[in-house]
Design brief:
By secondary structure, the chain is α/β, with parallel strands linked by helices. It is built from 14 helices and eleven strands. The protein folds into two domains: 30 residues; 289 residues, 4-Layer Sandwich (Metallo-beta-lactamase, Chain A). The strands form two sheets. Strands 1, 2, 3, 4, 5 and 11 form a six-stranded mixed sheet that branches. Strands 6-7-8-9-10 form a five-stranded mixed sheet. β2 and β3 form a beta hairpin. The chain is globular and about 80 Å long. The protein binds zinc ion (2 copies).
Length: 320
């Protein structure tokens, strides 16, 4: 074969291969039509305990903002930038007790990471204060943007005894990458075997490895019966659930996820959100990085903007 012919064959090959590679890496998501994941919600609700002892309010603050490209968020989505936000959440009980879910990274880490925008230092200080006052601290997962805010309180013995980290989170390479060395986590309270369990009234953790080994969905039922699922980073945007779309294959590899597990989870929660038959789903999905989804939950009264930092005391009804 002459050089010229060989070149033509190579070019023809590339013309065929490039669209295929583009499709495989950025467009194809192939979510299962019948996900294997099954969650016994009756058991979750039983574990959550009496409804009237559940949190009265679920509060939140944005600590930082940034963006992802559309193709990173969902397969076949745009190449343009999609806004992201980084939030901490605080469950507030009628007796003034609180549980904090997720501890957003500090300003130094923010400055070092790509695709980041503004950072709210006063919000980080409020998060640190909320962590100090919390009766229990949980993480949806061990990535730096959900975990490394713990560094601000990790040396305080009174706070340490309220940090609840299951073994898959403590032992994860992502936790090391978040700056939480194994020695610094040694001696934290034991959490028992890794299994679905209640961690506070109205709050049940459901192990969900996939995005990271220590990922867990946090079920929260409010005292008025409203049910929320904190999905961590199973999806970065609620669009995946609305449109039943997976993440792109490339980002799954880059993020070090377990793509088959994650595809199954996304399909499961997308279906759960749609409801069955004529009954509309009443689930509220908390997708921490999705500004529109968080705004919807705030507008609907499911979340309340601003952490509660009053002294621990029974809250008055008009404060909830
Ligand atoms: Zn995240
Ligand atoms: Zn993550």
């Amino acid at each position: 074969m002459t050089i010229r012919k060989l070149s033509l064959v190579l070019i023809a090959g590339l013309l065929v291969a490039l669209p295929l590679a583009h499709h495989a890496l950025f467009v194809s998501d192939s979510l299962p039509s019948a996900p294997e994941l099954a969650i016994d919600w009756a058991r979750v609700r039983t574990l959550a305990g009496p409804v009237n002892e559940s949190p009265a309010a679920i509060r939140t603050d944005v600590v930082a903002r940034g963006a992802f490209f559309g193709w990173m968020i969902c397969a076949g989505c745009s190449w343009g930038e999609v806004p992201m936000e980084f939030r901490t959440y605080q469950l507030v009980y009628a007796n003034g007790r609180t549980v904090v879910i997720d501890a957003v990274h500090d300003a130094e880490r923010h400055a070092a990471m790509p695709m980041m925008a503004d950072y709210d230092q006063p919000a980080f200080m409020r998060q640190t204060e909320a962590l100090r006052r919390a009766d229990r601290i949980l993480l949806t997962h061990e990535h730096w943007d959900h975990a490394s805010g713990l560094l601000a309180v990790l040396d305080d013995p009174a706070v340490r005894e309220r940090i609840w980290l299951p073994a898959p989170q403590r032992d994860s390479a992502a936790m090391r990458e978040a700056g939480l060395a194994a020695e610094r986590l040694a001696g934290l309270p034991a959490t028992g075997e890794t299994a679905m369990q209640a961690v506070a009234p109205g709050v049940v953790v459901i192990p969900m490895p996939g995005h990271t080994p220590g990922s867990q969905v946090v079920y929260v039922r409010r005292a008025d019966g409203t049910e929320l699922l904190f999905l961590g980073d199973i999806v970065w945007n609620a669009r995946n659930l609305r449109e039943r779309r997976g993440k792109s294959r490339l980002v799954g590899w880059l993020a070090g996820e377990d793509p088959p597990a994650l595809r199954d989870q996304i399909a499961y929660f997308a279906d759960l959100g749609k409801g069955s038959g004529r009954s509309r789903s009443s689930w509220h999905f908390v997708v921490a990085h999705d500004p529109e989804q968080n705004a919807r939950l705030v507008a609907g009264g499911v979340l309340v903007e601003g952490l509660e930092l009053a002294a621990q005391r029974p809250l008055l009804p008009n404060e909830l």
